[in-house]
Amino acid sequence: MFPFPAPSSLSPAKCHATYGTIGHLDSNQLPKKKGKPWATLQSSSHRFLQKVDLIFPEKLKDTINDAISKLETPVYHRVFMSLENILEKGIDGFFWTYVKSGKVMMLSEGSSETGNVLQIYRGQLTMWLEKEAYERAGIIGKPHGVKGSRGLKPRWIVEVDLMTPSMVHGKKGFDRLMYAARNVFNNSMPWILCSISSASTPDPDPLSKFQPYRRIINPVETEGVDLSIPPLEPTPDMIADRDEFDNFATETYEWLSLIRLQSPRVEAGDEVDPYLSLYRTPGDDGPMESTQVFKISWTGLVSSEWAQKTLTAIFLAAPSKSWFSFSAGSISKGRSRDTSEVTVLRPSNSPGEYVLWDIKGPEAE
């Protein structure tokens, strides 16, 4: 008998593909969060991003590089702190400077399926806890995971809004949280964090006393590769027929993913033995344009706000008849390492349109 893997307490990953039009974009302000693809980038499953990929043809190289040079370079820190350090008293401390102001996003090391993992985003504290730690902490939460699939080791999730006026030292609810920080979560743990806003670093910086390791995320450009370009714009018939659109979306997303993986299967003139791979570029049964395609990547903790600014800048800079693809993958908090991801394709000859793939990983809320 082959051993079966232990069932996960989380829902399986899901992908939703949509096609739509983008409203007016202004270089001086971010688009409204209500419309796609901006609302998707701002959703809870895409807040902590770890990898951003930008794919574009050769004729856009100078334009893209010029647009990127004008963007703010993302920075993140790795630091060891306890929860008590984060909630420390003092108007000039870390809590009031970063957490209470909603300027920071931070995530502790670990998995949301095992151990205790903590996360702070815009003043919202989320804690994934083992049963023992939850009971000792004495704070109110709810069971975590799909009902009926939590196994023999149930887990709990606690959510606290630290932005509310009552969440200050001396108030009952906050003191209960401080008790848990001093008696249950009192060990120093590794965190990664970055600033959400582009505001300047305070002086003195309360983070500096914890000796953080600062990491600058510079864009990395891969060498251009000659590719056969498939049809990248859905026809009216595809848009009207959901099955046809799903086939188009699946084939196009697979092609873009292979480019991100730098697979030789999408290169022009690839003649791999079909015994090894049956993959063929979509539309290869007819004449196809061949051009060099480049990829620029950012790897490290970045916020969805930065990703939104970057995507907006690329939309405004790219010529109306050119295509490009923008992908942002989140940090996985589960053992399966399946991540949530957003991919946006601006089709060629379609300046105000987009194809969006919204992939929600198992731990997506």
Features of the shown structure:
single chain, 365 residues, alpha+beta, 2 domains, 8-stranded antiparallel beta sheet, 7-stranded antiparallel beta sheet, 9 helices, disordered N terminus
Rg from alpha-carbon coordinates:
23 Å
**Number of DSSP strands?**
15
Mean pLDDT score: 86
When the domains are counted, the total is 2
**Strand order in the largest sheet:** 7-8-6-5-4-9-3-10
Q: Which percent range describes the beta-strand content?
A: 25-35%
Shape: elongated
Fraction of residues in H or I helices: 10-25%
Low-confidence stretches: 1-7
Structural class: alpha+beta
Distance between the termini: 35 Å
Compressed to H and E, one letter per element, the order equals EHEHEHHEEEHEEHEEEHHEHEEE
- Main β sheet profile: 8 strands, antiparallel
Number of helices: 9
Organism: Zalerion maritima
Protein name: Ribonuclease P 40kDa subunit-domain-containing protein
Pfam family, one: Ribonuc_P_40
GO molecular function, one term: ribonuclease P activity
